[in-house]
Amino acid sequence: MSGQGSIRVTVWNEYTDEQKKKEVTDVYPGGLHNTIAGFLNKDENISAKTTVITDPEQGLPDSLLENTDVLIWWGHIYHDRVDDKRVLKVVNQVHQGMGIIFLHSAHRSKPFLALTGASGRLSWREAEEKSRVWTADPAHPIAAGIPENFALEREEMYSEPFGIPQPESTVFISWFEGGNVFRSGVTFRRDYGKIFYFQPGHETYPAYHNEIVQRVIINAVKWVNPLVRVSNRDCPNVPALERITPK
Ligand code: ZN
Q1: How does pLDDT run across 208-239, given as a tens digit for each residue?
Q2: pTM, whole model, 2 decimals?
Q3: Tell me: the pLDDT tens digits for 98-122?
Q4: 131 located within any domain
Q5: Residue 155 Cα, ligand 1 centroid: separation in angstroms?
Q6: Number of domains, the chain
Q7: How remote is the CA of residue 91 from the centroid of ligand 1, in Å?
């Protein structure tokens, strides 16, 4: 499935046996990746396709990465199975300008850890509890059209302290019914690449069917979409532009 827009998005999902269980397919028939690409492709500016870990080159061939403006990453139990060489390619593309969005349990994915240089640690609970997402930075482009707060009737709890570097922006903060809070929408930049992490999206809960969550992810695609994409990461030795008088 692919739309007609100019922003080329690849939605990568590990899509393992865990996600083919009835309690997941009842919520996301065909997998989370197809639900996410489906709502993205309704936007006239976006053209989204999907890949999974069992595809050739783990769904991340060089030619695809080079022609992807924004990579969206959903992974959970198979983080360690992602080949380090593929991770390095993803990281290099982000340094060169590719945008990347990490969803939910991707806080422990290899590309997230490599790009943030942190542990991604948090605490969690699966208790069918309510979450209220607060827009902490209403002036941020990712918050465009998002209300001051919105509720998700069931979401997995993720709690502070969250093992990340100080974000460039904390766009959303979530409260959970059991009393915990979490920086649920944060941005970073690494070289030319923009990064967004967004917490909602446990595989047995319907967050990606929520229109406000969809709007956040669409806004994030447009924000991380590269303004500049450079072709190499070299450190060249260059001639002087002006005459130098050696001292
Ligand atoms: Zn989860």
Answers
A1: 999 999 999 999 999 999 999 998 888 999 99
A2: 0.96
A3: 999 999 999 999 999 999 999 999 9
A4: no
A5: 8
A6: 1
A7: 24
